[in-house]
Automatic annotation (TrEMBL):
The keyword Plastid does not apply. It comes from Tenacibaculum adriaticum. Keywords: Acetylation, ATP-binding, Ligase, Nucleotide-binding. InterPro entries: Ac_CoA_lig (IPR011904), ACAS_N (IPR032387), AMP-bd_C (IPR025110), AMP-bd_C_sf (IPR045851), AMP-binding_CS (IPR020845), AMP-dep_synth/lig_dom (IPR000873), ANL_N_sf (IPR042099). CDD domains: ACS (cd05966). This is Acetate--CoA ligase.
Amino acid sequence: MSNYHIKHLEEYYQVYRKSVRNPEVFWEEIAEEHFLWRKKWNNVLSWDFSKPEVKWFEGAKLNITENCIDRHLYTRGDKTAIIFEPNDPKEKAEHISYKQLHEKVCKFSNVLKAQGVKKGDRVCIYLPMIPELAISVLACARIGAIHSVVFAGFSSTALATRINDCDCKMVITSDGSYRGAKTIDLKGIVDDALEECPGVETVLVAKRIKSDIKMKEGRDKWLQPLLDKADNVCVPEIMDAEDPLFILYTSGSTGKPKGMVHTTAGYMVYTAYTFKNVFQYKEEDVYWCTADIGWITGHSYIVYGPLANGATTVMFEGVPSYPDYGRFWDIVEKHKINQFYTAPTAIRALAKEGVGHVEAHDLSSLKVLGTVGEPINEEAWHWYDDNIGKKKSPIVDTWWQTETGGIMITPIPFATPTKPTYATLPFPGIQPALMDENGKEIKGNQVDGRLCIKFPWPSMARTIWGNHQRYRDTYFTAFENKYFTGDGALRDEVGYYRITGRVDDVIIVSGHNLGTAPIEDAINEHPAVAESAIVGFPHDVKGNALYGYVILKDTGESRNQDNLRKEINQIITEQIGPIAKLDKIQFTNGLPKTRSGKIMRRILRKIAHKDTSNLGDTSTLLNPEVVQDIMDNAL
Ligand code: PRX
């Protein structure tokens, strides 16, 4: 019997030891006992990080939607699979049972097929958090199409880049979306994007807003009439274990976004197993993750992980502040949420509003609380523990990444004693290593270094779409034979890990990964801008905010700096989205550079952090004089 459900610390250590000593037997047992396979694998694992090439459950055949839906039909057909909680609390929540989900996914799958989508085709999904989002994801998976969900807060330019990078032939969107008090013209954004995307043949449009929108003849089709005509049975496509399931874009330090490719069997096994243990999900529980399905957290822990366990998972369309800051707690009370998973930035924003909204609601259903996406500071951790969990619900601070597919370092509730700001212990199967700058592993406890993983796990991304070399260069060349996460971490006296943050040029703002390069490229498009550099600085709600240093072109004319700041943020909003706007913009005459012309971000970071006591040796810079000037005018 595999240890599918870990219940106490002893058991965790036992399971962990087994997972490391004999990973293949460990994962094979879990895969064998808990999933539906059309054919079993020939080989559990083959791997070579130098290529890199990783294959799990090679030779196996399956369809992930049979595991997430069909196999529950006999035992849980009438159980609620998805609760849809609309943006407006006055609108009724929708409960979709496993039977209904099956029918909806089958119909949607048949629509996709009728529109010419075939196994291996890429389909871009650009939808708000409405049921059609989860259903279209599952429909793609059912017919073997590769979904590429783009978060509906991204701009038309960002959307076009992602559609073209993986040659999507279809886009699924809606006539608009609700976000708090705002209504957003999603279809208009898609229309703008598609001016640059000649490969898109069809746009399916779900109806959410009652508005008149332009439909392009021959390309755009309303979804509902097609669904009405579709058959409610769709035989799932039988997939190979290593067939791609989806592409999801994430920012890098340089260059365009990376389309991380996740494959089928390993991803399913790992997300299901982590979901069960990290949230201690029990059959009658109602689980809510507040993320958007446009991010990996939503893929793995709103859709695939929960549904693979036959869970009830909540999809929330709105924002934590609408109609007021009590909305999250209102939903917890209304749906009697047992597991609640959110981001530190949301906790900080809500903590700022005081406990009035919290106390107005009955939160006694809560059993487990989770956080993800960025380091959680001690104050926010205690606020969450005291006021939301009432010190009775363990907090799982889960560390992982788009690339890892599933949770990697985390407490297991009721088993692992928690410690504020610590993600604690590696999940079974995960072998972390801390590395020094010379590429040597740092053994022992009470040490810090660069966080790597030295053995494959089932849900790791297999490549970057269309650019395997970049995958290798980004993750497998910094440290030989190891996956490099890009994060720094420390290990305390008992072996608990604390993630200290990115060690590259990725900045996490409100839990969103932002690369500096695309933002700088956007700023540089302003006709008055000669050059720019972005760094992060601490922000009490967002974790980090963006600080831009901008050199203007010498045009001889004087410009209003406040207007320029607005224009720069406007360009960023158009090119990337409002999440990437700068909080501070300092105009400067120069940027500190090395003799080879590289911007010394370390110095800029220190100035933005208002920590200029130890800037290091600046005398070797190409232009040491600019440092004082930047310091004198810092914001
Ligand atoms: O820096 C780490 C941070 O978020 C990065 C991954 O971002 P993304 O791919 O967008 O995925 C976010 C959701 C899984 C990591 O490299 N991060 C994520 N979780 C934590 C974290 N930092 C500290 N503590 C965490 N629990």
